[in-house]
Amino acid sequence: MxxxxxxxxxxxxxxxxxxxxKRSAATGALKFVKDNxxxxxxxxxxxxYFILGLAxxxxxxxxxxxxxxxxxxAMKAESLGITVIDTYPDTLDAYFDGADEVEPRGSLIKGGxxxxxxxxxxxxxxxxxxxxxxxxxxxEKLGNFGVPVEVLNFGISFTISxxxxxxxxxxxxxxxxxxxxxxxxxxxxxEIDNPTMLESMIKRIPGVVEVGIFNGMTKRIFQGKGKEYxxxxx
Length: 234
Fold this sequence. Notes:
The protein is α/β, with parallel strands linked by helices. It has 2 domains: 3-136 and 215-233, Rossmann fold, CATH 3.40.50.1360; 147-211, ACT domain (Alpha-Beta Plaits, 2-Layer Sandwich). Helices cover 28% and strands 29% of the residues. It has 6 helices and 15 strands. A hairpin with a 2-residue loop joins β14 (218-225) and β15 (228-233). It is globular and about 55 Å long.
């Protein structure tokens, strides 16, 4: 694992420390956007800074096409002059997104913004997955944030009962519907010793659409540290 630090100039007056680190992480990830590439764009506050930076690269002449993981991301990117496509016949060159939690081996918790299913589709179908986080998202073990799970509305009480049999406590996210038209439940298991096993066990439950545990996908982690960032190759 290579660890490299880079200085970054954060903008804004009295910008909150977490926003500075999100901007720093996004700045680092932008260095890995290649000309004439097709990439995936995630959803969330850190990806917001990445999209702003990508728009500047487009203005400077870089040629890039993007698949967005949410309607919100697509609208934001298009409004800034970034080309957004709905489908792509090949593997994406790269995927750029944030995370709610990340542990040293690169496993993630995602889904705070509710786009976990589309995010996982893009991450799985990309040659490399670049994760951008502020320092607060880096944990020794996953679990404090909870595990977002997208489910079908039909039989949702059965689905919740089956997940809780695995040791979790589930809450339906109020007043929320994913871009796929489905509800989301947030499941709390405490510290997760084996993210791969837990993801697999939840995925086997009928009614589960997707699980917000991402295993074995991460290529790079860009961690903001104040006005700098640290790059970790996983």
